Amino acid sequence: MQLGDINRQDGRPPSRQIADHLRSAIDRGDLLPGDRLPSEAELTRHYSVARMTARQAIQELRSEGRVVAEHGRGVFVRMPAPVRRLASDRFARKHREAGQAAFLAEAEKAGVHPAVDQIEIDRSAPPADVRERLRLAEDDQVAVRSRRYLADDRPIEVATSFLPLPLAEGTAIMEADTGPGGIYARLEDAGHVLDHFVEEVTARMPTADERRRLELADGVPVLVVVRTAYDTAGVPVEVCDTVKAAPAYVLEYDIPAR
Amino acid sequence: MQLGDINRQDGRPPSRQIADHLRSAIDRGDLLPGDRLPSEAELTRHYSVARMTARQAIQELRSEGRVVAEHGRGVFVRMPAPVRRLASDRFARKHREAGQAAFLAEAEKAGVHPAVDQIEIDRSAPPADVRERLRLAEDDQVAVRSRRYLADDRPIEVATSFLPLPLAEGTAIMEADTGPGGIYARLEDAGHVLDHFVEEVTARMPTADERRRLELADGVPVLVVVRTAYDTAGVPVEVCDTVKAAPAYVLEYDIPAR
DNA sequence: GAGTAGAGGACGTCTAGACGAGTTGCAACG
DNA sequence: CGTTGCAACTCGTCTAGACGTCCTCTACTC
């Protein structure tokens, strides 16, 4: 592998030059996903710098999410994550009537092994933003369903649904298994025919807790999608707050020009 | 400000404990946005650690995007960014007919000072993914319009539009000023009435170049939105590749339940 | 009073070394 | 032949110090 040398006259500090060398080796394809980078000791020798300087170069690539360090083994070029593409018609009624929860059906079709765990169901007071979206009064309670989605045993999303308690109480929504078609099918069973959803999409770095639950490496952001479901009467019936590992997703939306 | 002490018996390394102290001081509100953190020297004295240890704690918060270091001044709790909310009807014809480019009109209304700079217009062969989206042949050329958007003099987005060259050549699309209603109005002038758009949304860490153009601090991800515009004949007429500073945006989409 | 030079404080980067802990492969042992 | 234990290599963290650049404030000069 071609690494070049440091130019001490260059305005850029040595650690950045080393990072640039490694980055372009990756971009050129000299280092492929899964390949090990030169060890810190090798970089130290090759460039004649202190170990901390070599480490800082690697740190730069880590924070860009391009490489992953594994204690005792080495630093590796990040493997591209298998991507889930979320189409804009993923909540179409036809999928719901097919009789399987959205995630399981879709993943199975895409050839990955889906799973859901860490299912927790609760009743509590909603966070302020959820209360506002559901247009609830000060002391209204909500049903809270949280769960984690995995694809091929790798966690890719944590989701929390909030529903006005009167809508959920006494239905399978409060059970671990919500039955065929999931929450939305149960809402329609109860007469709340769904009309449309509004999704609000943002991205940020994960909190420490999210990094743990999603098993995220350094330098991996999350996509946050907050979806509000409205019935045909225009009443918001569910808010679903999802945090997704960003590299694992492409969200697709269809927008009419009207 | 209450900082506590390091517990050397604790399994967690000192640098992480210091980071936790600072993080909870921010969460508690002891440190408000814009406040200066204790300097490295102060942390070094308070915790009796080496300066590199204090630095590493700060580095952790930087990579989470919670604080911003300013050379010669100090480390500050990040100010919440002014947020642009992109509604799902932002490409509705009514806005176009109002006769102002989408971004300028909307920003002005939101009370921020908008600007566009770094406008570059070119003709070239398209990248592979763009060629595919526009359904072009191997050696077709495209018009390329790239520009940078600023709000209150802070860069928040860089965008590059690709159009089949025959559609753009000879129109104001190849001029710096595309005229009232922007690119989309010019396409409709030319008989390509717009029918719908498809947006693909992902998030990732910025490249070094993007970090510079968007003046992003460490630990700030970008939202990437690739929009394809289709005319009423179902022909893709434009691909717009946008890279947005994530903290500055909320994308909103309306999805019919169908 | 305005302008300027300098000191000091702040972060940026590097050096050289130490110990710890996870991983792996090989060699010796049973 | 299988197992075990150790050595070597890897990254993780910390220490203690150096020098550089940038920013701010103060005190001095004109």
TrEMBL record, chains A, B:
Residues 12-80 form the HTH gntR-type domain. The keyword Nucleotide-binding does not apply. GO terms for biological process: negative regulation of DNA-templated transcription. It comes from the Bacteria. GO terms for molecular function: DNA binding; DNA-binding transcription factor activity. Keywords: DNA-binding, Transcription, Transcription regulation. This is GntR family transcriptional regulator. Coiled coil: none annotated. CDD domains: WHTH_GntR.
